[in-house]
Request: fold
Amino acid sequence: MASSSSWEEGDAAAAAAAATDVELLKRAWRNEKAAPEILRFEAALVARAREQIQLLEETVEEFMENGVDDLVVSLYQMDLDRTLFLLRSYLRIRLQKIEKYMIHISKSNLWNRLSEQEQRFAKRCTEIMEKHLEQSVLSKLPYGYQSMLKQSISSEEDDMVPEPQLDTFVFCKTKGAVGAFQLDDIGDEIVDLVADDLYVLRYKSIKGLVESGQIDLV
Amino acid sequence: MAGQSDPHISIFSAPEVEFLAEDEVVEIVPNIRMESLNMICGDFGPFFPQIPSKVPLWLAAALKKRGKCTIRTPEWMTVERLTQVLEAERESPREFQPLPFHYVEISRLLFDHARDDIPDIYMVRSLIEDIRDVRFHKVETGLETISGRTHAVKLKNLSAMEVNIVRPFMVRALQAFYKHDSPQMIQQADTMGSKRSQGADRGPRRDLRPR
Amino acid sequence: MYGRRASQLLKELGSCEAGQLTPFDSDSFDQVTKECNKHNLQLQSLIRKIEDQNLDIQTTRNEDHFGAVIHHLSLTRNKRCLMAYMYNRAEVIQSFRWKVGPVLPQEIQEKLNYSEEEYFKSHSAAIESYMSELDLDLTVDMVPPKDPYIRVRVLDDIGEVCLGDHSISLTKHSLHFLRRTDAEQFISQGLMEEFLE
Reply:
């Protein structure tokens, strides 16, 4: 890693900058796995990881052609395999969340958290699901009850859309001391979030901290 | 169909927890000379015979498996330290002693791959098993104390494997208490307590009335 | 009793092991949709009855109104059950693309209705096109990788075998360092075991 003097400030941003992309990817993977809703797509990170994977793939190939020691080749291969697994698993978890909550995602501001490709995937999935439910259930129901989103014509809002349960509890660790943190809207539930301590909290109450990268889900 | 959450989606499998543990850094003593490894996950080496070097556990295990190094037992994995930890675990029924977040997996990987490098391996293994048991018992008794509308549980020093084991039950229990103790479900005078909710208009946003 | 059959559909779902499917219960499914339409007819006739009496449909709270409400609620409940049945099955069907692959074996296919078969194909195609846009196969690497090489102990005399570009002699009790993929066939046959020192 490059070492520039400006990084020696010791603040959180510097620490994040000093982390390798693999560490960042691992964090993104863990958070995505543990969060009930889909998080913001780590576009730049994924792009960097893919670039490094490609570079290493080329290097490994070169090594093999040039008869570099099997040992070295197999060690690099393992590094490659590990990074590829993280990347694939990260992208896969996101797809599985989209599969699960496609309608909710496409109708809320979660939409902006998706990559372009994910948006196309979500759109297509929704159309396919719509068609499937339409021909197998909805078209067979009486007029007024044929909506996929509403139970009936008299529902005021969409009340048939599966949503992630934000009330669920998650295990999390803070990176730095967050300090006194308000756990509910009213403010009489305060917890002092100490660095590196492990907590079980309602996802909803720490959602902002996850999004801003101050807390990690484990 | 609204509000269903798949409990499986957010759980790490045992191989995944092990995968994470394999990135923990250990010290090896190589018996070969090898140039620096500039890997995606970081730069390691150069390696010289008999000169200790720090590498991730997966790399250490790979080198060890190929007969290229010995692995130094981490400082916390000695009989002396583990004996202290075990005693302290037994003495404090409500606290967990600080151990590496992946202590269970690290020790297992080392038992599997570097058996001959660990002094007093049988003692070390049995101490770690005892520590696991004592800690797990604490987790279980800790779960019994969940009651009422708990907003936060602090589990200082709980390890990754312990988190993973306790997660499904803990999450379900907390959710159930949260839901059933909501002011919408029981309209009663609030019991005062720091972990209890007191407002009347609070609680899960989920509407329980038929729509 | 209203709604009983619909709840049985869901019980069928619930009794099934996670990630598994029971055969599509078209019998119950059709009966429930029929029930829905019957509720609607009765609902409509009660509304007509209120209107015929020149009563205000919004404010009337007589027996016909409450009858209509019951039919309406029974209908929406049935609809929720039907949708939950289809939707939850669809989720399991989606997961087959990841677990089984793009072609379903006969014994799974038999459990799907026509629309579900179509759904599986279209959904697979959507995943396919996402992966080709990305130029990355996401159906491999489902579990964390391990060292591609493994140390094994031979448990029985296997003899001379050809692995890759060289042949080795696998005699009983001998130790070898092999590609995991090469060793796995022997391990699954009980002829080798992973050797941990």
